[in-house]
Amino acid sequence: MGSIIHEPIHRELHEVNTETNKVDINRWCLTRYSPSVQQYNTIILFFHLIGPCIINLGSALFIIFGSAQQRSTAQTSRTPREHIYNQFSEHKQLLISPIILLILSLPRLIMSMLSECINPSNHRLLFIFGYFISFTPSMLIFIIFVLPSALYRKKFQETFRRPRRLIHS
Protein backbone atom coordinates (compact mmCIF):
# COMPACT_ATOMS: atom_id res chain seq x y z
CA MET A 1 0.00 0.00 0.00
CA GLY A 2 2.85 2.35 0.77
CA SER A 3 4.38 1.89 -2.66
CA ILE A 4 1.29 3.24 -4.46
CA ILE A 5 0.37 6.02 -2.02
CA HIS A 6 1.32 8.56 -4.71
CA GLU A 7 -1.63 7.49 -6.87
CA PRO A 8 -4.55 8.90 -4.82
CA ILE A 9 -2.57 12.09 -4.20
CA HIS A 10 -2.27 12.82 -7.92
CA ARG A 11 -5.82 11.90 -8.94
CA GLU A 12 -8.03 14.55 -10.47
CA LEU A 13 -11.74 14.37 -11.25
CA HIS A 14 -12.76 15.83 -14.61
CA GLU A 15 -16.24 16.30 -16.01
CA VAL A 16 -16.70 15.91 -19.74
CA ASN A 17 -19.87 17.00 -21.51
CA THR A 18 -20.76 14.39 -24.12
CA GLU A 19 -23.90 16.00 -25.57
CA THR A 20 -24.50 19.52 -26.81
CA ASN A 21 -27.38 20.03 -24.37
CA LYS A 22 -24.98 19.33 -21.46
CA VAL A 23 -27.37 16.82 -19.90
CA ASP A 24 -25.05 13.84 -20.14
CA ILE A 25 -21.91 14.39 -18.09
CA ASN A 26 -19.17 11.80 -17.76
CA ARG A 27 -16.76 11.97 -14.87
CA TRP A 28 -13.24 10.67 -15.40
CA CYS A 29 -10.62 10.09 -12.78
CA LEU A 30 -7.22 10.99 -14.22
CA THR A 31 -3.76 10.77 -12.78
CA ARG A 32 -1.17 13.36 -13.70
CA TYR A 33 2.37 12.76 -12.61
CA SER A 34 5.48 14.88 -12.69
CA PRO A 35 8.35 13.21 -14.62
CA SER A 36 10.00 11.99 -11.41
CA VAL A 37 6.74 10.53 -10.03
CA GLN A 38 6.04 8.97 -13.46
CA GLN A 39 9.44 7.28 -13.36
CA TYR A 40 8.77 6.05 -9.80
CA ASN A 41 5.34 4.78 -10.89
CA THR A 42 6.89 2.83 -13.78
CA ILE A 43 9.45 1.24 -11.46
CA ILE A 44 6.71 0.29 -8.97
CA LEU A 45 4.55 -1.23 -11.73
CA PHE A 46 7.45 -3.41 -12.89
CA PHE A 47 8.32 -4.32 -9.31
CA HIS A 48 4.74 -5.40 -8.56
CA LEU A 49 4.72 -7.50 -11.72
CA ILE A 50 8.19 -9.05 -11.68
CA GLY A 51 8.82 -9.20 -7.90
CA PRO A 52 6.27 -11.93 -7.09
CA CYS A 53 7.33 -13.91 -10.17
CA ILE A 54 10.98 -13.86 -9.10
CA ILE A 55 10.05 -14.83 -5.53
CA ASN A 56 7.88 -17.73 -6.78
CA LEU A 57 10.57 -18.97 -9.18
CA GLY A 58 13.26 -18.64 -6.50
CA SER A 59 11.13 -20.56 -4.01
CA ALA A 60 10.44 -23.28 -6.58
CA LEU A 61 14.13 -23.65 -7.37
CA PHE A 62 14.94 -23.74 -3.64
CA ILE A 63 12.39 -26.53 -3.15
CA ILE A 64 13.61 -28.48 -6.18
CA PHE A 65 17.34 -28.26 -5.41
CA GLY A 66 16.82 -28.74 -1.65
CA SER A 67 14.74 -31.87 -2.19
CA ALA A 68 17.22 -33.21 -4.74
CA GLN A 69 20.11 -32.66 -2.35
CA GLN A 70 18.32 -34.44 0.50
CA ARG A 71 17.39 -37.37 -1.73
CA SER A 72 20.88 -37.68 -3.18
CA THR A 73 22.24 -37.86 0.39
CA ALA A 74 19.70 -40.53 1.35
CA GLN A 75 19.70 -42.47 -1.93
CA THR A 76 23.26 -42.80 -3.15
CA SER A 77 22.35 -45.31 -5.88
CA ARG A 78 21.41 -42.42 -8.21
CA THR A 79 23.46 -39.41 -9.23
CA PRO A 80 22.60 -35.91 -7.96
CA ARG A 81 21.77 -34.92 -11.54
CA GLU A 82 19.13 -37.68 -11.73
CA HIS A 83 17.61 -36.47 -8.46
CA ILE A 84 17.48 -32.89 -9.77
CA TYR A 85 15.84 -34.08 -12.99
CA ASN A 86 13.25 -36.10 -11.02
CA GLN A 87 12.49 -33.11 -8.77
CA PHE A 88 12.09 -30.85 -11.82
CA SER A 89 9.60 -33.26 -13.36
CA GLU A 90 7.78 -33.70 -10.04
CA HIS A 91 7.50 -29.96 -9.32
CA LYS A 92 7.21 -28.55 -12.84
CA GLN A 93 3.97 -26.75 -11.96
CA LEU A 94 5.93 -24.63 -9.48
CA LEU A 95 7.97 -23.29 -12.40
CA ILE A 96 5.21 -23.12 -15.01
CA SER A 97 2.64 -21.23 -12.92
CA PRO A 98 4.62 -18.03 -12.18
CA ILE A 99 5.72 -17.76 -15.81
CA ILE A 100 2.13 -18.09 -17.05
CA LEU A 101 0.94 -15.51 -14.51
CA LEU A 102 3.72 -13.15 -15.65
CA ILE A 103 2.69 -13.53 -19.29
CA LEU A 104 -0.98 -12.99 -18.44
CA SER A 105 -0.14 -9.85 -16.47
CA LEU A 106 1.85 -8.23 -19.27
CA PRO A 107 -1.20 -6.76 -21.10
CA ARG A 108 -2.34 -5.11 -17.87
CA LEU A 109 1.13 -3.62 -17.44
CA ILE A 110 1.13 -2.35 -21.01
CA MET A 111 -2.34 -0.82 -20.58
CA SER A 112 -1.28 0.95 -17.40
CA MET A 113 1.87 2.29 -19.06
CA LEU A 114 -0.04 4.01 -21.86
CA SER A 115 0.38 7.62 -20.89
CA GLU A 116 -1.49 9.32 -23.70
CA CYS A 117 -5.09 10.40 -23.23
CA ILE A 118 -7.59 8.43 -25.25
CA ASN A 119 -11.22 9.33 -25.72
CA PRO A 120 -12.99 6.32 -24.19
CA SER A 121 -16.11 6.73 -26.31
CA ASN A 122 -14.01 6.17 -29.45
CA HIS A 123 -12.05 3.24 -28.02
CA ARG A 124 -14.60 1.29 -25.98
CA LEU A 125 -13.21 -2.12 -26.92
CA LEU A 126 -9.73 -1.10 -25.80
CA PHE A 127 -11.02 -0.06 -22.36
CA ILE A 128 -13.23 -3.14 -22.00
CA PHE A 129 -10.30 -5.37 -22.98
CA GLY A 130 -8.04 -3.55 -20.52
CA TYR A 131 -10.59 -3.99 -17.74
CA PHE A 132 -11.27 -7.67 -18.32
CA ILE A 133 -7.65 -8.65 -18.96
CA SER A 134 -6.92 -7.93 -15.31
CA PHE A 135 -9.30 -10.79 -14.37
CA THR A 136 -7.63 -13.33 -16.66
CA PRO A 137 -5.14 -14.75 -14.12
CA SER A 138 -7.93 -15.25 -11.56
CA MET A 139 -10.17 -16.95 -14.09
CA LEU A 140 -7.41 -19.28 -15.25
CA ILE A 141 -6.21 -20.49 -11.84
CA PHE A 142 -7.50 -23.99 -12.55
CA ILE A 143 -5.57 -24.19 -15.81
CA ILE A 144 -2.45 -22.55 -14.37
CA PHE A 145 -2.15 -24.47 -11.09
CA VAL A 146 -4.24 -27.66 -11.22
CA LEU A 147 -3.67 -29.04 -14.70
CA PRO A 148 0.17 -28.88 -14.71
CA SER A 149 0.36 -30.62 -11.32
CA ALA A 150 -0.08 -34.39 -11.32
CA LEU A 151 -1.02 -34.37 -7.62
CA TYR A 152 -3.66 -31.62 -7.92
CA ARG A 153 -5.07 -33.14 -11.12
CA LYS A 154 -5.35 -36.55 -9.39
CA LYS A 155 -7.13 -35.02 -6.37
CA PHE A 156 -9.48 -33.13 -8.70
CA GLN A 157 -10.38 -36.33 -10.54
CA GLU A 158 -10.91 -38.17 -7.23
CA THR A 159 -13.31 -35.45 -6.13
CA PHE A 160 -15.56 -36.20 -9.08
CA ARG A 161 -15.25 -39.97 -8.78
CA ARG A 162 -16.33 -39.98 -5.13
CA PRO A 163 -19.89 -38.67 -5.70
CA ARG A 164 -20.41 -41.10 -8.60
CA ARG A 165 -19.47 -44.03 -6.33
CA LEU A 166 -21.96 -42.84 -3.71
CA ILE A 167 -24.72 -42.53 -6.31
CA HIS A 168 -24.11 -46.01 -7.78
CA SER A 169 -23.89 -47.73 -4.37
Protein model, in words:
With 169 residues, the protein is mainly alpha-helical. It has one domain (35-114, 124-168). The chain is 69% helix and 8% strand. It contains 8 helices and 2 strands. A two-stranded antiparallel ribbon has the order 1-2. The radius of gyration is 24 Å and the shape is flat. The model has no long low-confidence stretch (mean pLDDT 77). It comes from Adineta steineri. The chain crosses the membrane at residues 43-65, 94-114, 126-152. This is G-protein coupled receptors family 1 profile domain-containing protein. Keywords: Membrane, Transmembrane, Transmembrane helix.
Share of helix, binned: 55-70%
Based on CA atoms alone, the radius of gyration comes out at 24 Å
Tally of domains? 1
Q: Output the structural class.
A: mainly alpha
Number of helical elements: 8
Mean pLDDT over the full residue set = 77
SSE order: HEEHHHHHHH
Taking the sheet with the most strands, its summary is: 2 strands, antiparallel
Explain the layout of strands and helices.
Elements: H1 6-9, E1 11-17, E2 25-31, H2 35-74, H3 80-90, H4 92-113, H5 124-133, H6 136-139, H7 141-146, H8 150-168
Antiparallel strand pairs: 1-2
Helix pairs in contact: 2-3, 2-4
Key attributes of the depicted protein:
single chain, 169 residues, mainly alpha, two-stranded antiparallel ribbon, 69% helix, 8% strand
